[in-house]
Each structure stands twice: as C-alpha cells, then as structure tokens.
Design a protein that fits this description.
Number of strands: 6
Number of domains: 1
Structural class: mainly beta
Largest sheet: 4 strands, mixed
Radius of gyration: 17 Å
C-alpha cells in the first residue's frame, strides 16, 4: 500500500474556443497537453489528477 498512487485522468474536449486576441471562434485544434495538480493525500495513498486540455489555432486572417 505504501508508495501507491491513485491517478485520475480527465480530458477536456470542447468543440472550439474564442481566440484571446481577437475573439474569433475556432474549432481547429493546434495541440493538447497534460496538466497535473499537486499530489494530494487520499487516505494512505497519494492521489494525482491529470487533465488533458486542448489548444486551438486562430483561423482569422488578421
């Protein structure tokens, strides 16, 4: 039991997002990456949250 880690993996899958620069809506996925929260104690084991999020590419001509 000691040294075991409970890992919860979640995926964020929105259809698109607004560009933070010009607010143009896009659905073109640029890439994705995994974010980890700080490891938290869960009873005797450590718990780790891994969240995969998408990055979008702005398709506006400007």
């Amino acid at each position: 039991m000691h040294g075991e880690v409970i890992r919860v993996e979640a995926r964020c899958t929105p259809a698109g997002a607004a560009c933070p620069e010009c607010a143009h809506w896009t659905e073109r996925v640029h890439s994705s990456y995994v974010r980890f929260s700080a490891e938290l104690p869960a009873a005797v084991r450590r718990a780790q949250l891994a969240l995969r999020v998408r990055r979008f590419f702005c398709t506006a001509s400007a």
